[in-house]
Write a structure and sequence with these properties.
The protein is 86% helix and 0% strand. The protein is mainly α.
């Protein structure tokens, strides 16, 4: 099977799985907002954002490094999995111990101390499941990653939903989510045991040294990325109130849901990128250009649609009490485009062993993001946080794109963006001048206009048409 078809197959599997998973996850968010309201959802968002920021210091950057190394040399799987698992668990427990003390020095965190401690337990199971899925992705056995995610999300919706509808509140919800993660972790353990390598704790200290040294740039990148994605909610919770945090959390949850798209495409294409560079075979430049174009062609209409339909989307999903989130989503929607494009350029740098430049760019962006949030949130609240996110994501994309060009992989952005931009303008004109009263009809019409114009002006090439035709043939 050709590289293009392999990537298309893996992308299809992961895309179908992630649509399903994010649909279920989003149903749970809608249920939480309707049962707990703005204040309750604010505490829920704050607890998970707080732990996500804390947990990055225990991440150690090993996922990307292990992913790349197993993709290149599968014989390393057992040693890498065992020792990575041990290091991650020890680091997570240590960091949680330190953060437990920090909670009591932050007034807003003290109010959510109980939920925060429960989320810590939840994330311990996430550590194991994430490592297992890294192995599945590296072997390009993405169906196992799909199954594990489906099990987790369905269990989360069922158990979390029962807790909410049963009147158990925020605490019952998080306990339900812990049980769902445990179920997913058991499945991941079973698949590793049967098909790859029996996971256990490893204590190869020489390997630990190499893991830590080689993963450091990836770790710093993850630290800075998490700060970029989560610091806005943490700072809103501390500088404003949980109601504002809940409104912003509703808007940002829509953006977060869409960011699975670049994750799917990169997960499917990154093994080929790493192999092309490692073995000096294939055309990495062409593959990078294709991936970048796909993400541009998907991110641009998403940004236009979110910007023009933001109020209707918020009212449909979260009801009138979250109407204030519409203006925040209108701004945040444009950050989707830059998140998509940054993913392509950043992972190119990872594939060519220039990950430290990815780290530098995300580090500078994290500092900029914190400064912008600190300046804008006290005055503008959630709108200020949304503006800070948009500016920071645009800056990150610019830096990564330039770094990719400097290291031998330049792209002609004007050429790549021309046809998607024409199609997006046509879509925007339809939504702005000839809107339907129904949101669903607007989404369908906008998507059809964009796809039709892109097709007619040659924005979909022959190879992509052939892959789409084969996929439709199998589906029929």
């Amino acid at each position: 099977m050709s590289t293009a078809k392999t990537i298309a197959r893996n992308t299809g599997i992961l895309f179908a799985a992630d649509i399903f998973n994010h649909f279920f996850a989003f149903l749970l968010v809608i249920l939480i907002t309707n049962v707990l309201g703005t204040d309750g959802f604010g505490k829920y968002s704050f607890a998970f954002a707080f732990i996500n920021v804390v947990a990055i210091f225990a991440h150690l950057g090993m996922r990307t490094y292990v992913f790349r190394e197993i993709s290149k040399e599968p014989k390393q799987t057992k040693a890498l999995v065992d020792n990575t698992l041990t290091l991650r668990m020890l680091a997570t427990i240590a960091v949680y111990g330190l953060s437990f003390g920090a909670i009591f020095f932050l007034p807003k965190a003290r109010e959510a101390a109980g939920p925060i401690m429960l989320v810590m337990v939840h994330e311990l199971f996430v550590v194991f499941s994430t490592l297992a899925r890294t192995v599945f992705n590296a072997y390009e056995k993405n169906q196992y990653a799909m199954h594990s995610l489906v099990i987790e999300k369905v269990s989360s919706l069922v158990l979390g939903g029962l807790a909410l509808l049963g009147g158990l509140g925020l605490y019952g919800l998080i306990v339900g989510l812990i049980l769902a993660q445990a179920i997913g972790a058991v499945y991941c353990y079973w698949i590793l045991l049967r098909n790859f390598a029996a996971p256990s704790f490893g204590f190869d200290f020489r390997l630990w040294k190499g893991l830590l040294r080689n993963s450091l740039p990836f770790w710093l990148t993850v630290v800075f990325q998490k700060i970029n994605y989560k610091i806005d909610i943490v700072m809103l919770g501390n500088l404003k109130d949980y109601t504002t945090t809940g409104l912003y959390g509703a808007a940002s949850s829509i953006v977060s849901t869409l960011t699975f798209i670049p994750g799917v495409i990169i997960t499917a294409s990154f093994p080929a990128m790493a192999r092309f560079f490692h073995k000096k075979t294939g055309n990495l430049q062409l593959l990078y250009e294709k991936v970048f174009y796909y993400l541009l062609a998907l991110g641009l209409p998403a940004a236009v649609g979110l910007s023009l339909l933001s109020d209707d989307i918020i009212r449909l999903l979260f009801q009138e009490k979250f109407a204030g989130a519409g203006a925040m989503l209108q701004i945040l929607g444009w950050s989707v485009l830059f998140i998509f494009l940054s993913t392509a350029s950043g992972h190119l740098l990872n594939a060519i062993n220039k990950q430290h430049f990815f780290t530098i760019a995300t580090g500078i962006t994290a500092a900029l993001n914190i400064a912008l949030n600190g300046a804008l949130i006290p005055r503008f609240g959630g709108i200020g946080a949304a503006l800070a996110t948009l500016i920071a994501q645009f800056f990150l994309f610019t830096k990564l794109f330039i770094f990719g060009a400097i290291h031998g992989f330049p792209l002609k952005l004007s050429r790549l963006a021309l046809k998607p931009s024409i199609a997006a303008l046509a879509m925007g004109a339809q939504l702005f001048y000839f809107p339907f009263r129904n949101l669903g009809l607007n989404i369908i019409a906008g998507a059809l206009v964009y796809a039709a114009v892109l097709f007619l002006i040659g924005g979909i090439e022959r190879e992509e048409k052939e892959i789409i035709k084969q996929a439709l043939g199998k589906a029929s």
